[in-house]
Amino acid sequence: MAELPSNVHLTLHPNFLRIRGPSLYKDDKHRTWLHFVLEKGGVLQVRLLQEDIPSGHIAFTTRPEISSSMPSRWTLQLGNQYLDTMGRFWRIIYHIKVDGVEEMMLELINNS
Question: Model-level pTM greater than 0.90?
Answer without folding.
Answer: no
